[in-house]
Amino acid sequence: MNILVINAGSSSLKYQLIEISKEEVLAKGLVERIGIEGSMLTHTAKGKEKLEIKEPMKDHKEAMGHVLHALTDKQFGIISDMSEINAVGHRVLHAAEKFSDSVIINDEVIAAIKECIKFGPLHNPANLMGIEACMATMPDTPMVAVFDTAFHQTMPKKAYLYGLSYDAYTEHGIRRYGFHGTSHKYVSQRLPKLLGKDKKDLKIITCHLGNGSSLAAVDGGKCVDTTMGLTPLAGVVMGTRCGDIDPAIVPHLMKEMNLNSEQMSDYMNKKCGVLGISGISSDFRDLDKASVEGNQRAKIAIEIFCYGVKKYIGAYAAAMGGVDAIVFTAGIGENNGALRAACVEGLEYMGVKMDEELNKNRGEMRISAADSKVEIWCVPTNEELMIAIDTFELCK
Ligand code: ADP
């Protein structure tokens, strides 16, 4: 069975065609600059040459037309016609409390995604454009929505309610929802397989550390807490996002810097985090380099990040009454051994001990010392595969 996985942004559309029985990527690609000058499709199918198409694409529907063309092209494609796409899985940001799992898309689901635009004003409309484009180009193919928030719906009330008046929750839906759910779900399901254990018997802390970063406490396969909140702005300090701050800072800085609410939101999302602290870059490769060269602000930015991750590891071990495994994933978690080490440095007292040599490697691997009570692993995330698996389960 072939599953087409779609991740639509406001002006981009990423896709992968996955053969599910072998979990094999048959083709993948990216359409950029949809609706703006310089639209471009880059497509690669297994065993074929890379295809690049530079043509105006005024909307996601036109972009999808090009994607389907590329997938079925004799020279660059991998399937002979559209009927070989058995189902489509869409990444969708926010489902609030409406869905705790992936769902087959129907009118009700579309209405729910629209209702959640207030919580995901940039992503949900873009995700909908992707869904509508696929529905227009593949009207008979079943489609599934896979939500970034769904995996975290198992959190108990004590973890998801804020200390606001109760009607902020009941009237306005203000609560912790959490994000990167598809990634946390993938790595927390993958690790038990690698350990040869049942997920029900494990307490895992998953650390998705990338441009956006979040941690989750996963007890017995279920998320019991996570660092992001109503939106992906909360939690640890990120590339450009501030993470957790004293809420009183918001009105204070709005007054001091003469910002309206949109400008303030833009500031906290795009100009803060390690970029704002260092004044150099949001990318940890740049910060590592600057720090080695003696830049003190780059050094403190890295320290703040690692300290934040470490504090949450401690908090989640406390929340679960212990921890069996810590998993690192995403751009930093998969590639930056020095940062991984810094995030668990000093946690030997709770049985967390890194193997320095193993931690120099990359890929899916154990990185804890043989005598570490807690397993530490690096597990490259695969959100596309997780979306394909969920889609298959609902459409088989
Ligand atoms: P996003 O959240 O945008 O998907 P990523 O998961 O790609 O972001 O994470 C981006 C971060 O990962 C950057 O700070 C970068 O320094 C780091 N990173 C990505 N690839 C590598 C690599 N090959 N080596 C070291 N660091 C990397």
Number of structurally distinct domains: 2
Strand order of the largest sheet: 5-4-3-2-1-6-8-7
Question: What does the radius of gyration come to?
Answer: 21 Å
Number of strands: 14
CATH level-4 homologous superfamily of the largest domain: ATPase, nucleotide binding domain
Reading the helices and strands in chain order gives EEEEEHEEHHEHHHEEEHHHHHEHHEEH
- Biggest β-sheet, characterized? 8 strands, mixed
- Classify the oligomer: single chain
- The number of helical elements comes to 14
Roughly what is the average pLDDT, rounded to an integer? 97
End-to-end distance: 8 Å
Which hetero ligands occur in this complex? Answer: adenosine-5'-diphosphate
What name does CATH use for the topology of the largest domain? Nucleotidyltransferase, domain 5
- What characteristic shape results from the CA principal axes? globular
CATH class of the largest domain: Alpha Beta
Percent strand equals 15-25%
What is the CATH architecture assignment of the largest domain? 2-Layer Sandwich
Helix/strand/pairing class, anyone?
alpha/beta
Q: Ranges with pLDDT <50 over ≥5 residues?
A: none
Can you walk me through this structure?
The protein has 396 residues and is an alpha/beta fold. It folds into two domains: 146 residues, Nucleotidyltransferase, domain 5 (2-Layer Sandwich), CATH 3.30.420; 182 residues, 2-Layer Sandwich (Nucleotidyltransferase, domain 5). 37% of the residues lie in helices and 19% in strands. The protein has 14 helices and 14 strands. Strand 10 and strand 11 form a beta hairpin. Helix 11 packs across helix 13. The mean pLDDT is 97. Bound molecules: adenosine-5'-diphosphate (ADP). Adenosine-5'-diphosphate binds next to helix 10 and helix 12.
